[in-house]
């Protein structure tokens, strides 16, 4: 009897591990494919729509009116609430809730409710004195999630361009023009210790790095470079200056790597490239016996998992 129970337990445990492996693989595949889905379906962001707001605390940033230093990315944590629902709530309740942001994005709208020349109450005193702030509404379908983050990324890129700021991600360094609320609390703790939008992004296998790549893509488009939101954006801009690598067909996907301050390369969690997909690259790096190809601003593919289909011009 004990042996039988042990056998049943072993079978159940093995089944659970197999299920977890499938779920993890599914999440890792989705991590790559949100931006790819946007690019393949030519999903365009909606226009930024100005809506009357009720926030009457008009204060400039620490460097003055009209001088923000970047954008903070939030999510509402309110399933089913649209951007219009959130606008109504914030305009009615900000005095009680003691919070207000500049804009909301969902799958169909980008609604701006406060002048971005002035600060808001969204992420604590340190951030409020420095950043424009936008909330992402929670969606329930893959398509709507992709459309909503595309709108959120476009708003952030538009604001960086408007104020003469260049895209840089602060989440891993504590310095940059794009911050998650999580990063604000990590480097400059504020009231509430919020960690958004990380948890919500994880539900869709998405990350701040991928949102940043999408922001960089829209920023480049505003500067006349169409780029590629799936592959990220090379620093030197024009595709004519880039080669192409293809993920090998004998593997389901390849892990990506990011460069550390000491020059080493370490794996990026939950971000992979699928087999037989092509990626722009404009730079290589040799590390620990391998050559790595940059396929996004901060992401590198290893030579053992990819092969060149178009060499990088003027590079041996």
Automatic annotation (TrEMBL):
List the signal peptide residues.
Answer: 1-31
InterPro entries assigned: Amidase/PGRP_sf (IPR036505), Amidase_domain (IPR002502)
Keyword terms, alphabetized? Signal
Q: Where is the N-acetylmuramoyl-L-alanine amidase domain?
A: 54-198
Q: Which SUPFAM superfamilies match?
A: N-acetylmuramoyl-L-alanine amidase-like
- Spell out the protein name for this chain: Peptidoglycan recognition protein family protein
Source species, please?
Bombilactobacillus thymidiniphilus
